[in-house]
Design goal:
about 260 residues; alpha/beta; 5-stranded parallel sheet; 11 helices; about 10% strand
């Protein structure tokens, strides 16, 4: 190994910059000068300084991977558990939600159902828990129920249904929002059932619905198919009922009256 001795500070900085470009270490390249000055002030050992550099690179790569997974999930907006108002919705148990945030249910391939009226926070929780899963290293995809069904129908017409179902089958968590807002015809319901069956006991499905399970016959008009779908997305999973009182509406009224 060739050792370069007697480099000036300027030459050393240039060598580090060049090596970081070659080795694709953007974080070390951008933070080297700052970290080197801090190491000198703190009289850090060579090993300690090297560890600081490598940890900075690893941490930044982990952050960028999380950002890519969150972007790939296609969430419609940013939502986090930190911004969820548990006080405004006492139906939701913070302990249960924070346990779900550990993503053990995702590791086990279990389903999650969030049931409640509009404005009770179910979509917020769906996106926030999906984001937690993406940050934990899982592949996540968010989609509206009607959009998913329309995509499946078009895929069937174009003879690429198997490919589309397989694509949805590859993600670790499939977040389906607004299930129950619109009636699905028999074909659409059957195609959605195929997606759920593909993922059964292998990968997690998280759904948010404004209808209780007893009301799903309005969405899935075939009673037997409806029962099979409910079975697929509840077996062994978690069910959170967010209630019927819209805290968004309550907040709007409070602002109006103040």
């Amino acid at each position: 190994m060739t050792r370069h001795r007697g480099l000036t500070e300027q030459a050393a900085d240039a060598a580090v910059d060049s090596a970081c470009r070659l080795l694709r270490l953007p974080t070390i390249r951008s933070q080297f000068t700052e970290l080197a000055e801090a190491a000198a002030r703190d009289q850090m050992t060579y090993r300690g300084f090297l560890a600081e550099l490598l940890m900075a690179e690893c941490d930044d790569r982990a952050r960028r991977r999380s950002e890519r997974r969150i972007k790939a999930a296609a969430f419609p907006r940013d939502k986090s558990l930190r911004t969820f108002d548990f006080d405004a919705n006492p139906n939701v148990d913070p302990a249960v939600v924070h346990t779900l945030a550990t993503c053990d249910w995702v590791r086990k391939g279990l389903p999650l159902c969030l049931i409640g009226d509009s404005g009770t926070g179910k979509s917020h929780l769906l996106i926030a828990l999906g984001t937690e899963a993406a940050m934990a290293g899982f592949r996540v995809r968010y989609v509206l129920a009607t959009k998913l069904v329309n995509e499946l129908v078009e895929a069937a017409d174009d003879k690429i249904l198997a490919k589309t179902i397989a694509r949805y089958g590859r993600v670790d968590v499939l977040c389906i929002d607004e299930l129950g807002y619109m009636e699905l015809d028999k074909r659409g319901a059957e195609l959605l059932f195929q997606v759920l069956t593909e993922r059964e006991e292998k990968a997690s499905v998280a759904i948010a619905s404004n209808e209780s399970f007893s009301g799903w016959t309005k969405t899935f008009t075939d009673p037997r198919l409806c029962a099979a779908i409910v079975d697929r997305i509840t077996f062994g999973g978690n069910i959170i009922e967010t209630g019927t009182d819209s805290y968004r509406l309550a907040q709007t009224r409070a602002r109006t009256q103040s």
